[in-house]
Amino acid sequence: SLGDAQASEAEVAFREAVQLAEGSSLASKPSTLYGTLADFCHFLSTQARYSEARQHCRRSLELSRSAADPDGTCAAQEYLGIMHHMRGDVGRAERAFQRAIVAAEQGTKPQRLC
């Protein structure tokens, strides 16, 4: 896990990234915003800040659904599943992972390895 100083630096960077994405990408590329929100959700989950993490995942999920983007929906559901698992709520984690699978089956882009 990250030390307190590193976690604080990472949080500042994530908050700045969200602000930049909100300011510049809503009109041109909303995936930047909901991708950043999903990543921030995961970071907050690793810091056991589940309530705040859930808010960011939910917002990411809403935006990706509005954009009809199965990749964004899949990522947000995966991070929700991870967050619920970290909290010890296996049932909710499983349901989130199942929703991620449904989103993936709707047409996510294949992952490429370098």
UniProtKB/TrEMBL annotation:
User: Domain of life, per the record?
Assistant: Eukaryota
Question: InterPro entries given for it?
Answer: TPR-like_helical_dom_sf
Show the SUPFAM superfamilies listed in the entry: TPR-like
- Gene3D superfamilies recorded for this chain? Tetratricopeptide repeat domain (1.25.40.10)
Give one Pfam hit by family name: TPR_12
Record-given protein name:
MalT-like TPR region domain-containing protein
- Write down the species: Zooxanthella nutricula
